[in-house]
Amino acid sequence: MNKPKVAFICVHNSCRSQIAEALGRHLAPDVFESYSAGTEPGPQINQDAVRLMKQIYGIDMEKTQYSKLLSDIPPVDVVVTMGCNVRCPFLPCTERFDWGLEDPAGAGDEAFIETIREIHTKIVELAQHLAQ
């Protein structure tokens, strides 16, 4: 059976969606394939997110990830929006979730760490849901 493809979607695809893609690959690679993309990708992944993901998990997001447009990812089964405070574009899928996460950009390390912890918890919950 093919693993479902999950897309984590955000406007700039530079922070929350990138963290979710990395943690999906790290925590649930046997359950689903992780992708991330945005409607207006930034020039690079947020450097605070990169630094803290290296520090907490030993994951270097810049080695395998970059900011992408929605058209740069394959068709997906599940779409997870991060809580963009904008109407996210429609991507065909069988399931859709909105995690409603605040963007920690510019808010300091504590905000980033809290967001990373929230995403970690949600990735584990998503993996359990999809494994059923």
From TrEMBL:
- What GO biological process terms are annotated to this protein in UniProt? response to arsenic-containing substance
Q: Where is the Phosphotyrosine protein phosphatase I domain?
A: 4-129
InterPro entries (UniProt xref): Ptyr_pPase, Ptyr_pPase_sf
Domain of life of the source: Bacteria
Listed A to Z, the keywords are: Arsenical resistance
Entry annotated with the keyword Acyltransferase: no
Gene3D superfamilies reported for this sequence:
3.40.50.2300
Q: Name one Pfam family in it.
A: LMWPc
Q: Which PANTHER family does this chain map to?
A: ARSENATE REDUCTASE
- Protein's name in the database: Arsenate reductase
According to its UniProt entry, this protein's organism is: Eubacterium pyruvativorans
